[in-house]
Design goal:
Number of helices: 11
Order of helices and strands: EEEHEEEEEHEHHEHEEEEEEHHHHHH
Cofactor: Mg(2+); Mn(2+)
Largest sheet: 6 strands, mixed
Oligomer: single chain
Enzyme class: hydrolase
Number of strands: 16
Family: Belongs to the DNA repair enzymes AP/ExoA family.
Strand content: 15-25%
Radius of gyration: 30 Å
Pfam family, one: Exo_endo_phos
EC number: 3.1.11.2
Helix content: 25-40%
């Protein structure tokens, strides 16, 4: 027999401040970092500000990547998007549009994912309004005009989801919807088919921020297209967590917006952990109800029962616990049950219920005596703390200690985002860690080169053995 099981689809977005970083002149990919691997478990992952050229090919095991690189006349590459889809869902995904820099549209097929309508997913990055690129190209005006046109086009045949770094600041008191309250003054402005929203919850933000120009444009887009901001009003982010940390302060720059009719499909929205070694932005993620899959009952795995390795000491504890039990009530129940059975009332449903209750009571007594009162842990495999895999030979205990200190401060900062001194301390420690890693890499490289030269002069066999021991890319720091 098969049963229908609802599957959930996870989507993540992260401004990574460049997918590659430099260590003593060598290019290192952040996709190999354990911290970024944590979000690369989602079904769909959108990375912004990748800073990769048009000829760059990105590969990640189990995923297919779509890129939209920003065209540039200079050698310095900025912006750029990279979107990863798990290969098992590729048949339900179609690239719709990437004609403009820093914006990509995909269609999630309603039949494949069992949606009521097709879902049009957009990953985008809107550069700051005061950046040289925006001022030179007037990009902000272009991208908002395209957004408005695309949303109007795709909303006709499906629901819309927008995710990315919008560089928008929106005050939580600013509404992104029109209430159900009757206002005659709006009759001449709203279309006749406009349905007022019944959003039951206003948004929250962890810190106060004023609405900037981008924020006003986003709010206008929401009210016109009936999109809703998920930050600060959804399960998983009821507080409206910070998504951006730097020396100047903290703010909420990364958003997820979706069609109001699609809100019942949203399971949760969350803001990930701040990882200063990767980016000054936090990743954001949503989980949505997806396809119904057939699951065979034959594949049902019976839950593992709790087991005890019996010892003499445990036997004595069990006996001691049993002596503390008051069996008066149990004896009385058993006597009453015996009388009912002897009275030939076995067909009575009350007798069956009494038997079940009595057996359950006795089982509970035995279980409590064996487990709940036994404070000794079962001998066996001890749970080991998870340690990061150190992939770089130059990354020693000193680097790891400094990294863990930085992580501890970062976790504290996430609970106290308004603490300016703590924020500056985190960013300072991040800078010091990067300096230390570069220093260790230079020392390692110098040591290996010296070892190769010495072995070449003394013994050719040692020279080639040293070369063979080096894994590919170790001298390049990747």
């Amino acid at each position: 027999m098969c049963i229908k099981v609802s599957k959930q689809l996870s989507i993540s977005s992260w401004n990574v401040n460049g997918l590659f970083k430099r260590i003593s002149g060598n290019r290192v990919c952040k996709l190999d970092d354990d911290n970024i691997c944590q979000i690369m478990t989602a079904d769909i992952v959108g990375l912004s500000e990748t800073h990769i050229p048009t000829n760059e090919i990105l590969n990640y095991d189990g995923y297919k990547c779509f890129v939209n690189c920003r065209s540039s006349d200079s050698n310095k590459v900025r912006g750029g998007l990279a979107t990863f889809f798990k290969k098992e869902i590729l048949s339900g995904v179609k690239l719709m549009d990437k004609t403009m820099d820093d914006i990509m549209w995909f269609k999630l097929d309603k039949t494949f994912f069992s949606f009521d309508r097709n879902v049009f997913l957009c990953f985008l990055y809107i550069p700051p309004s005061n950046s040289s690129y925006t001022l030179r190209t007037n990009f902000d005006k272009q991208i908002f005009e395209k957004l408005e046109a695309d949303i109007a086009k795709y909303s006709i045949s499906g629901d819309v989801i927008l995710m990315g770094d919008l560089n928008a600041h929106i005050n939580c008191k600013e509404l992104d919807f029109i209430t159900n309250e009757v206002d005659d003054s709006l009759d001449n402005f709203l279309p006749t088919n406009y349905v007022a929203d019944s959003v039951c919850k206003f948004r929250n933000t962890q810190v106060h921020q004023k609405t900037n120009n981008y924020g006003k444009l986003i709010l206008d887009l929401c009210t016109e297209s009936q999109l809703r901001i998920l930050n600060g009003r959804t399960l998983g982010d009821s507080k409206g967590k910070i998504t951006f940390y730097n020396h100047n302060g903290v703010s909420i720059d990364d958003y997820c917006l979706c069609s109001s009719e699609f809100l019942p499909n949203i399971v949760n929205f969350s803001v990930g952990q701040f990882e200063p070694t990767i980016s000054d932005h936090c990743p954001i993620s949503i989980t949505i109800h997806s396809q119904l899959v057939n699951k065979s009952c034959d594949n049902y795995v019976k839950p593992t029962l709790r087991r005890v390795k019996w010892t003499t000491k445990r036997e004595e504890i069990f006996k001691s616990n049993m002596l503390k039990v008051n069996f008066g009530t149990i004896n009385s129940d058993v006597d009453n049950l015996t009388q009912k059975i002897e009275a030939n009332n076995t067909c009575n449903s009350n007798v069956t219920q009494s038997v079940n209750d009595t057996v359950s009571s006795i089982s509970s007594i035995l279980y409590n005596a064996a487990f709940l009162s036994n404070t000794n842990k079962t001998p066996g495999k001890t749970k080991r703390s998870k340690r990061r895999k150190i992939k770089k030979p130059y990354y020693d205990n000193e680097c790891e200690s400094k990294y863990r200190s930085l992580k501890s401060l970062t976790r504290k900062l996430c609970t106290e985002p308004w603490n300016d001194s703590l924020r500056h301390k985190v960013l300072y420690n991040k800078k010091e860690l990067n300096k230390l890693i570069r220093k260790k890499y230079r020392q390692f490289r110098h040591k290996m080169i010296k070892q190769i030269i010495d072995s070449n002069n003394s013994c050719p066999n040692d020279f080639w053995n040293t070369i063979k021991k080096l894994k590919k890319g170790e001298l390049q720091g990747s």
